[in-house]
Amino acid sequence: MSTSDGSQTFDSNTWYHLTETRVDDDPTEQFKSSLQILDEGGLRVFQWKVLGDSSNPHLWQFQPIDNIPNRYQIRNGKTTTRRQLSVCFNPNEEDKSKSRPCMAESANVDEQKWEFIPWGDVIGSYKIINAKNGSDYNVDVHPGSALFMSSDLDESVPRPAQRWLISSYTTVNDGIYSTTVVGGSKTASSSPASTSAIPTTTSPSPESTSTEPAAEPAAEPAAEPASESSSLSAGAAAGIGVGVGLAVIFVVLGALFLIWRRRGKKKAGAVVELESPANPEAPPAEPKPAAFGYYSPGSDTEKKTATVPLQEVEGSQVQEMEGSKPDAAPASQPLSPAPQTLSPASPQQTPQQTVSSESPQRFST
Q: In which compartments does the protein localize (predicted)?
């Protein structure tokens, strides 16, 4: 059905067949070629019978987007709703656009939104532009090679690979294709199904073709909700895991702190015991006064020497050591001179001295 401004509205419940006028120039006949997704990736316009006329990779679905009559998200039967037709940067592209059409993971981005503008020719062909690149580039095809976004738009020169023919093939009849990617999530399409004015072609084997589209997408509804629910449960599980991990860390740190504290107390007790032994050393005794009021000069570590009394033996003075070690030699030899007789003729007599090496000297008369 055509809108009032001349743009074409495609039915979202219809599989379409796309080709370009370089290889197919008569829309009233069965197309000999089609836009296809290669097994190794990439897009090519190949002959229809290369993969068999019942294969879904030949067929495309158009889902209206942004409430713009000629703007769509485009899916393929091979990748279902997981991927959509997009535009990708390619440094090997010869055109200055450096970009080519590609299949990318479904998202609500301008790179995955396409507009179909009628050329106004007699065969009803369309130019295909991308919402991201704008009207400065049209989808074109290198001869026998890849698609690319062409910046050469001179309409005075025939550009058959920029003129696309679109023909309805069969109905979709699968609820998964009624969703539209909006804001990163899929929502049910609210646009009513419309009847396309695109001519319908008949496949040589229509039964096998109509059953094939429903067979591959049928597994998708169960797969995608499962991934959404698993993502929610994964987030909750991650939160629980973080909480449990923090609790375990705090418990371990607390246990280590208690162990460290107990060891510190034990070390402190050991230090106190070393500083206060069971049998402390007795304080040093004060030195006793030696004979005649003098103190012995001995040190604390040496055994004190007893006072040395002086005894007279038969008129001589002898020094006797008391308190010394039994094996030690006497500190000094007593001086034992021959006894002297005081003569009356000598008024003065030299006193005899007894010298001790460890006590003060004493003179006697």
A: Membrane
